[in-house]
Amino acid sequence: MKIGIPKEIKDKENRVAGTPGAVRMFVQQGHHVFVQAAAGEGSGYPDAAYAEVGARIVKEAADVFGEAEMILKVKEPQAAEIPLIRKGQVLFTYLHLAAEASLAKALMASGAVAIAYETVQIGRRLPLLEPMSEIAGRMSVVVGSYFLAKVHGGKGVLLGGVPGVLPGKVLVLGGGTAGVNAGRMAMGLGADVTILEVDLERMRFLDITLHSGAHTLYSNEQNLFDALPEVDLLIGAVLIPGAPAPKLIRREMLRRMKAGSVFVDIAIDQGGCAETSRPTTHSAPTFLEEGVIHYCVTNMPGAYARTATQALVNVTTPYAVKLANLGWEAACAQMPDLRQGLNVAGGQIVHPIVAKALGL
Questions:
Q1: Residues 166, 216, 237, 271: what is their CA dihedral angle, to the nearest 10 degrees?
Q2: Measured distance CA(199)–CA(214) in Å, rounded
Q3: Tens digit of each residue's pLDDT (9 = 90 or more) over 266-302
Q4: pLDDT surpasses 90 at 242
Q5: Mean pLDDT computed over 340-349
């Protein structure tokens, strides 16, 4: 199979969908790999490293899309890339279509087969989303702490406090992969951490794994409403696979937070978990609503591209190899978890939760 790896063009997106090590695996199994020039530079992989393992370096994205039967990407196709996608071509990437109706319709019209990393599912696990959720969860505390500084518009609270001064309060909505990593990171800084969760078994798991270093609280509107006035950093880490994120935070709730508090919405890829959330970029990451600093960057892990690329490629490459070796239909037939990732085929939305979210 001919496999294409284009350079990511989303704002400040420095990840790449394949490392030289992954390319070596494809080549060893008889596949041809086309890598766009400079695709790996943002993650520390020069063109020469790809050429050494047998990739063909091409200059333009159009050349990659034109040659490849399967496109490996990190982020959803951008406006300039959509016209390059053709009928029958396999696209393997993050898509988050529930929050991108126009992209969904464009992929349907293209006739391509689109498989989304974020809906590949084993039981309740999302193995291709987990490593990025881990990074986003840990990063949420780093950026939240940064914007809490008075010089960056925040209320001037140091999350860890100092002797004689109480630590800052961090409230995490959701105890999944992103939430537990946010909690661990905040605990590491010495913050006072509370995680809201609806699953009682998950709360027991959090209590055991976090060694009571973080509080757990049943997630309902009243508990959230009562907690917000004391919160310095609010982190939204809720997820329903394939569906839009639930809007747990209404505008009037944010008004209960103190001016200069920070809200990091990790769920923004799926539309965000607050009615005030809107997508931002690494170039302009924040905005102010109701006196609260909102950080809603849709590709958070791209800031730590080297780590994120390696973590992503570790989990995506085995699936990509199967797709290349067997073709998408046979691979999905053999691997029920990969079949869950199938979002678009034959001009239709074929994932039921995504279809319901889009009304398609």
A1: -110
A2: 16
A3: 999 999 999 999 999 999 999 999 999 999 999 999 9
A4: no
A5: 97
Query: Does the annotation mark 282 as catalytic?
Result: no
- The Cα–Cα gap between 5 and 23 comes to 10
269 given a catalytic annotation: yes
Domains located in the chain, CATH noted: 2-120+306-358 (3.40.50.720), 130-298 (3.40.50.720)
The C-alpha angle with vertex 120 and arms to 114 and 123, in degrees rounded to 5, equals 155
Spot the catalytic one: 63, 192, 265, 269.
Answer: 269
Q: How many CB atoms lie within 10 A of CB 209?
A: 12
Q: Strands 2-5 and 292-295: what pairing?
A: unpaired
pTM over the 0.85 mark? yes
Q: Is 114 left (phi over 0), alpha (psi -120 to 50) or beta?
A: beta
Q: Active-site residue among 31, 96, 294, 351?
A: 96
Confidence of residue 240 (pLDDT cuts 50, 70, 90): confident
Judging by beta carbons within 10 Å of its beta carbon (0-12, 13-18, 19+), is residue 354 exposed, middle or buried?
A: buried
What tens digit of pLDDT does each residue of 196-205 get? 999 999 999 9
Q: What is the SS3 string spanning the chain?
A: CEEEECCCCCCCCCCCCCCHHHHHHHHHCCCEEEEECCCCHHHCCCHHHHHHCCCEEECCHHHHHHHCCEEECCCCCCCCCHHHCCCCCEEEECCCHHHCHHHHHHHHHHCCEEEEHHHCCECCECCCCHHHHHHHHHHHHHHHHHHHCHHHCCCCCCCCCECCECCCEEEEECCCHHHHHHHHHHHHHCCEEEEEECCHHHHHHHHHHCCCCCEEEECCHHHHHHHHHHCCEEEECCCCCCCCCCCCECHHHHCCCCCCCEEEEHHHHHCCCECCCCCECCCCCEEEECCEEEECECCHHHHHHHHHHHHHHHHHHHHHHHHHHHCHHHHHHHCHHHHHCEEEECCEECCHHHHHHHCC
